[in-house]
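Fig. S4 source data, part A: sequence.
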Amino acid sequence: MRALRTATPGTIPGWDFAGVLMEDASEELRAGSRVLGIVEHGAWAEVVAVRRDWIAAIPDEVTFTQAAALPTAALTALRTLRLGAAGLGDHVLITGASGGVGQFAVQLAARAGAMVTALVSTGTEAGVLEGIGAKHVVTDIEQVRDRFDVIIESVGGQVLGRALSLLDSRGRLVAFGNSSDEPTTFNVRDVYNGALVKILGFELFFDPLPFGRDLALLLELVVKGTLIPHVAQVLSWDDMATALDRLGNRAAGGKLILTI
């Protein structure tokens, strides 16, 4: 966000996109096909160059708006849960659960059979998160007394420090963000719990696996109705300043989609 506000003329930002192929990419993906995809930079443009294994065909049942909400957030949710090996019966804590990644992570973890606790900043999001699979919604991590097999963490600062003390025996914490923009301090003795725990970091573009197959999987889940992209608002390209203000003030309440 800070980089966008200080970007110089000529900068083309953005990771997620949904559009129409201009050239054949494979036997299945022909010119004119509707696709979604992800790039490391330059997605917010009329024409985007992308690796063929970083795109997937959009099924007829999925709109461009739904598809455009998926790539970065849903891929991050899917792959952090995989890295943490969240599965059937696991107790999973997801911090920043009302954000784009958080809402997808709640849905995917619940679909895998995990018992999900969602940490949010205010209680106003509780109904939405319970409706997509969260068993418990909390607003203060200091009041949490449960232990967790897996923690998906994106807030940083004091939240990360407290989360480390909530790992169960052989628990796994996967950190992928620091929305608080604060440093973390913790007593390592709080992490031991008499067993081996893992603290893992994740950055989407450092993951060497191509994205196309996972994008196709996520689209299939959307078609089945088991993964719901939460689109807060669709805005014109000309309203980018409005979108940036809402994101900067954490007032989006879901994904914001820009249309050209």
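Fig. S4 source data, part B ends here. Residues 92 and 150 are 5 Å apart (CA to CA).
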